[in-house]
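User: Some background: our group keeps a shared notebook of sequences we're curious about, and every so often someone picks one and asks for a predicted structure to add to the entry. Today it's my turn. The entry only has the sequence so far, pasted here. Could you supply the structure so I can complete it?
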Amino acid sequence: MARLESEVAIVTGGARGLGRAIAEAYVAEGARVCIADVRIELAQRVAEALGDSVIALELDVTDEQSWNLALGACEEAFGSVSVLVNNAGLAEGAAIDDTTLESYRRVTEVNQTGVFLGMKSVIPAMKRVGHGSIINMSSIDGLVGSPRIISYIASKWAVRGMTKAVAMEMGPYSIRVNSIHPGHVVTELGLRDGVDPSIITAMVEEHTARHAPMQRTGTPQEIAAMAVFLASNESSYCTGAEFVVDGGFTAGYPAPGSPNPF
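Assistant: Of course. Here's the predicted structure to add to the notebook entry:
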């Protein structure tokens, strides 16, 4: 039996990157999936490629009415939603003295307010069906600090705390709420306009090879595997927790002059 055969899932930011990998993995495990993305044409192409168990929905995660419309369309197509992956995200980087209020608000609106609205929107549907799994995409940057991305750091730490707060409320309803904290995975989110993607990829891979015990970046499919676990009954006693998928990056740094090969 497929691990997600009876589940109906919404995956935000599902048109590319981690979201697409999660949608693909969910379909492979028997779920019916609503790919929700502001890039509706791209989302439609992905849905067509994945088959009849997938539809594309236009969604602005910062807009409550957009959430209501997307949820209604998903339930009309497939029935009550039992899984939500709050994956849509935005990253903008600068030192704090160069970070504008507009940029800060733009990032936190998508990464933090979008997660709040997603959880608030689907919980009534999950209560009706009698169970649910909410998976909020945070980051290793929701566990440790990092320079020049204060808005992203703030939003990902917020997601971690929001996850725990809502897990406390939803436990009696058999609705589980957990966060995933990916390490370095090269997707479109980390690429900068006007910069050769191969340059960014090489920089990230070199940095990870020096500091992560596994000496490599992760793949979207490795993050998706965790999202499958958290959506399935295999994680039935997991809620309010952080699931770190980072190749050991946050485990610690080797001491200067140590014999560690990385």
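Suggested note for the entry: Residues 101-129 form the longest helix (29 residues). Residues 191-217 form one domain.
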